[in-house]
Design a protein that fits this description.
The protein has 16 helices and 20 strands. The chain is α+β, with helices and mostly antiparallel strands and 560 residues long. The strands form 4 sheets. The chain has a 5-stranded antiparallel sheet. Strand 16, helix 14 and strand 17 form a beta-alpha-beta unit. Helix 4 runs antiparallel to helix 11 and helix 8 crosses helix 10. The two termini are 29 Å apart.
Amino acid sequence: MIKPASEKKLSHNEILKENDPLLAGNLAATLSDPEVDRFSNDDGQFLKFHGIYQQDDRDKRKTGKHYMFMIRGRIASGIMAPDQYRVYDDLATNYANNTLRLTSRQSIQFHGVVKTGLGPLMKTINEALMTTLAACGDVNRNVMASPTPATDTWINEVHADSELLSNGLQPTTQAYHSIWVEGVQLDLEEHKDHEDPLYGKTYLPRKFKTAFAIPPLNDVDLFTNCLGFIAIAENDKLVGYNLTAGGGLGMSHNNPNTFPRKADVIGYITRDQIENVAKGVLTIHRDFGDRTDRKHARLKYVLEEKGVEWFRNELEKRIGFKLEDAKPFEFTRQGDRFGWHKQADGNHFLGLFVEAGRIKDTDSIQLKTAIRKVVDSYKTEIRLTPTQNILIVNVAPESLEGINKILADHGVQTTHEKSPVRSATMACPALPTCGLALAESERYLPGLIDRVEGLLGNAGIPEEEIIIRMTGCPNGCARPYMAELGFVGRAPKKYNVYVGGNESGTRLNRLYKVSVKDDEMDELLGSLLHRFKGERQTDERFGDWSARALWKELDEQEEA
């Protein structure tokens, strides 16, 4: 029999937070100690709240653990001024592995940072008036919003609202500034009574994710977030948002109590209400989330178990007013725009595809160097997309020729020539940096797409777009459970295969095959693609065919 939560023991992380609500641990002391190359396991949990993951190079484990750190910035809506991008580019060169890893939440991660470089890197970010605070940990993470430059006069207002929540949902601990800017250890005894005014002494039971979407484009995968805002415009004016809550994708293999869940539409609010409502939703997670089992601690489980009506009533108690009914909206697609496009203000923006989200230089394409030269020469704003690509925005018409030349000189094409299926891919970093990875992802997916392109050609549909996403474990960082075709690492060279997501990002897919080996993948995918070509209805996408045909077969198998 499952014990009620009141009878279960708190998880170890909850005890850590309760004993040290400043989230300071012994971070400053360890940081200043040249004799050690890592932090304790407990301090590793505090590091996450500061935007840092302690990792080791899994490619080198046969020779011992080589500790290193991943650092993630908090960049609301993925919007970076030229000077900010330059700082990140320099830090990647000077302290990381000379690459910038774009995330699925519109941020940048540094990989391969050793402990001696951690302090200088963090200090430089904060001196540039940027931060990594709350990019990880049991708090609200980076706030997402559609990054495409304004094609309507009000779209910039959505970005302003995302910035409002990014600031308004920050934790207030003094430890972050003390450790990374001043380089001193806070007196924990002196601050033992610290209690964050929003998060309390023990913060949230698990992470909390927020996003803004602008219909008909659902590029942020809104329904995968704990908290979502769907922009509603009337007479070319942003008037408010439909509120969503309870989405999330993380799960664990062989644990039926964990599962992906799509958010529910809760109601409608006006713009002036968003911060109050956001804090109300967040505190429901704070007060009702499971603090005994971190695998079952997301807000989605509160919604699933208590219901939408309960949630709406509880939220209305906290915010002090009744929500209006949701207003009509429609999502039709997701994804990014590549190549040059004109903005509403007469300037232009350029969408560049970034394979597996890794900005780096290779022998044939010097993408990292090229983007830096463009930013240095033309002071362009950079925007990061939710599908790990990059936009160069606010480009004056007279600058197009010069930017095109810089990019061409470094092997970067401004006319997008990747196949439709490759352009719709996304992968998490996985091995060798992520300690949770069960299989490859970023290093494996490009080669798999080579094979998929061949299989599409063999099936007679070489230009077919299929949204494909891969993760090295079931936590779902690259959102594979919303893909038309998803791959989730099960073991080395083995993946669970999911089918049936849709173009608009409004439908979860379903598990189709378990533990498909790499050498079995071509046969499985080739068979599916040939069936799709022969059975599809007019203009039917792979995900819609899968939901219509393959799901029926799955249902029949379950009934047998």
